[in-house]
Prior knowledge:
Nucleoside Triphosphate Pyrophosphohydrolase, globular, hydrolase, NUDIX_hydrolase_dom, NUDIX_hydrolase_CS, Nudix_hydrolase
Amino acid sequence: MDNYSIQARVTGVLIEEKSILLVKHTDKVDENRFWSLPGGKVEQGETLEYAMKREMFEETGLNVEIQRLLYVCDKPEEQVSRIHFLFRVKKINGTITLPSNLYDDNNITDIRFVPFDQLEHLNFSKVFMNLVFNDFPDAGHYKGHKSNIGL
Length: 151
């Protein structure tokens, strides 16, 4: 039997006043972008909800609750195949704070709410911007490859 592994990842979409919360990394998160949505891998023994709350707090200093599942996507071509769960989250409390970056290979250097109309300047795809501007149509569904949501 082949040794096969798959990794679950969670990503949070926090929107306030037509702006979306993003984190900036020291290295590119894809070929064109340093900015991304907060999130990360689900650790052994964690629920998706717990992982989402933990990742948001670790990366942004904010406590959140999950409002709804937006999309499930996959990225099987990675060295470890990945399933991505994209959640809409709501801020409960906390203050935006840069993380310690002790455990990350790609450090976070900035965190900010970015107006929707500025996403293009940060090299987000038109596919992703269309989803944001249209309040994530077809939410709650499997969308196939992660590129289908423009990330």
